[in-house]
Write a structure and sequence with these properties.
elongated
Length: about 200
């Protein structure tokens, strides 16, 4: 984007005001607004031109190999305007690599594609977490458990004895071993039947 002499004057004035704020005249404000509108319009026009260029490039690429010369010129122009080659461009250049201009463009496009891949990967990379998972062995929960003093078994009339932990070489006890069945109450003694005296 090129600026004329008047536009450069306004741009210098705007930069000076940004660096050293001072009272601004109405004329300076209007000049800055006009410059901003001109820059916005130039950016929109540039985007429209790039869209036309990319559309032309796709048409020339679809008509290869007969349009090789025009396609290579358009691709070089598009790359100069910030266009990033896509897989179709790389495939077309591989098919044309017998052409020296195509081979040169292929090397350039491969380099740009690798830069794009590296940029995407670095954007997706997540830094390793500095906190450990609580549920895994060696995590924060185990450290907290190690810091706590061992609880003393409760002693008293209503306390239960601590549960026994099975040794590693002994199988886990069954519920019948841990909770033995309750004893049935003894049946009442059988009394001899009493006969009532007839009277």
């Amino acid at each position: 984007m090129a600026f004329g002499a008047e536009e450069l004057r306004v741009l210098r004035r705007a930069l000076a005001l940004a660096l050293h704020p001072s009272p601004v005249s109405a004329e300076d404000v209007q000049d800055c607004l006009r410059l901003a509108e001109s820059v916005d319009e130039a950016a929109r026009e540039g985007a429209r031109l790039r869209a036309f260029l990319v559309a032309d490039l796709a048409r020339y690429r679809a008509a290869l190999p007969g349009t090789a010369a025009g396609y290579l010129l358009l691709l070089e122009e598009a790359l100069g305007s910030g266009y990033r080659p896509n897989p179709d461009d790389l495939a077309a250049l591989r098919a044309l690599r017998g052409n020296p201009a195509a081979a040169t463009l292929l090397d350039r496009c491969r380099m740009l594609a690798e830069q794009d891949v590296r940029a995407r990967l670095s954007a997706l990379a997540v830094p390793p977490s500095r906190t450990r998972l609580l549920a895994l062995p060696g995590g924060l929960a185990s450290e907290e458990g190690a810091k706590k003093p061992a609880e003393k078994p409760a002693t008293g009339p209503g306390s239960r004895p601590p549960a026994k932990t099975p040794s590693p070489d002994r199988p886990i006890p069954t519920p019948g071993e841990v909770f033995p069945p309750k004893r049935k109450p003894a049946p009442p003694p059988a009394n001899p039947p009493q006969q009532l005296a007839a009277g």
